[in-house]
Write a structure and sequence with these properties.
Length: about 270
């Protein structure tokens, strides 16, 4: 089970409580998600709360504009299971750091669920998240932000890969997958299939002290990319890092920004 860490002062207790109440659940829980999103959408939020429509439902995103004169593009950030769109490790630090470096960042609140869904529930969550990812992509004006990248953590990384395998999008130029895992014994594993299919650059970054499911499937992920001649796939390990890169946020931020700027199609805008 992923280690949990506190979030912003003032709403930490409420958020940990509502997430904790979800532990027995296996499928998406809209009621839980609404409570989390309502707690996040507060005056203490560091970023702009943007509610997007997805059919009959609406979901929270957190927007931070580029803090530089020239924009590098838009970065969609997807959190891991058992966390949320403003989690104090990985997600929130990356949203702020990439904005300082010239990216317009948008962190998505994904369907809330148990921290350890089975394979069927995991696929169901990825399907539900796909429509949100596409809506978030559409949020960025293609004339103003032609270049987009996806940055996902854990299940959020799997969701990003699954979405683009199903719906390739020319505006998305790269995917940074942090703490990604696959089921190496399952040929129909959707993330394995996505690695085999996606042609744009993929950064597969994980910590040497990451979850066993992540470190244990690293060799298989490399093998899949190699067997399918995915030249844009790159795997890196950050020595000493755990799944949440505790105490190593700066190293994570630098790795992600450097790779995105080098790899994605940068079209700087005034």
């Amino acid at each position: 089970m992923p280690k949990r860490h506190p979030t912003a002062p003032g709403i930490a207790g409420l958020l940990l409580l509502v997430i904790g109440l979800a532990l027995p659940l296996q499928a998406a829980n809209l009621s839980l998600e609404r409570r989390i999103s309502t707690a996040l959408d507060s005056p203490s939020l560091s970023g702009k709360a943007v509610w997007l429509e997805n059919g009959n439902n609406r979901f929270l995103t957190i927007y931070s504009p580029s803090e530089t004169k020239l924009s590098l593009g838009g970065a969609l950030i997807l959190h891991d299971q058992g966390t949320h769109a403003d989690w104090a490790e990985v997600v929130q630090p990356l949203r702020k750091h990439l904005a300082r470096q010239g990216w317009n960042t948008l962190a998505l609140q994904l369907p809330a669920t148990d921290t350890s869904p089975d394979a069927t529930a995991r696929l169901n969550l990825m399907e539900k998240a796909s429509a949100r990812i596409q809506r978030a992509i559409d949020y960025f004006d293609p004339q103003q932000q032609p270049n987009l990248v996806l940055v996902g953590h854990g299940l959020g990384a799997a969701m990003a890969l699954h979405h683009l395998a199903k719906q390739p999008n020319q505006r998305v130029s790269a995917i940074a997958a942090i703490g990604l895992s696959i089921d190496p014994s399952e040929e129909s594993d959707p993330v394995s299939q996505a690695i085999a299919q996606i042609e744009i650059p993929i950064l597969d970054l994980y910590g040497s002290r990451d979850l066993p499911a992540v470190t244990g499937s690293a060799a298989k992920r490399r093998q899949i990319a190699s067997a399918n001649a995915r030249e844009g796939y790159r795997q890196e390990v950050l020595n000493g890092a755990d799944h949440f890169f505790s105490g190593m946020q700066s190293s994570l931020q630098q790795r992600i920004h450097t790779w995105l700027k080098r790899t994605s199609t940068i079209e700087e805008q005034n």
